């Protein structure tokens, strides 16, 4: 672990409303996959939802990055 970093540090949400947006995305994806989230769901089902969330968030970031590059030209 690099020096100066706290062991229990966590990421802070910097954009207002983003936490709720991610929660909405989670339940939307679970609904699309037919997964009922919670303790009754298998780790595989919860993992499918989490993996899809990551995939979509990365894609959004890449799209945003490429659109900002094209605007600056």
Which terms would index this structure?
73 residues; 63% helix; 0% strand
How would you describe what is shown here?
This protein is 63% helix and 0% strand. It is mainly α. Helix 1 (18-33) packs across helix 2 (43-72). The radius of gyration is 16 Å and the shape is extended. The mean pLDDT is 85.
Helices and strands in order, then pairings?
Elements: H1 18-33, H2 43-72
Helix pairs in contact: 1-2
* Average of per-residue pLDDT values: 85
What is the succession of H and E elements? Answer: HH
- The number of helical runs is 2
Percent helix: 55-70%
Largest sheet: none
Structural class call reads mainly alpha
Question: Please, how many domains?
Answer: 1
N-to-C span = 40 Å
Task: Say how many strands there are.
Answer: 0
* Low-confidence runs: none
Instruction: State which percent range the strand residues make up.
Output: under 5%
Overall 3D form = extended
Rounded Rg: 16 Å
Structure at a glance:
This protein has helices at residues 18-33, 43-72. With 73 residues, it is mostly helical. It has one domain.
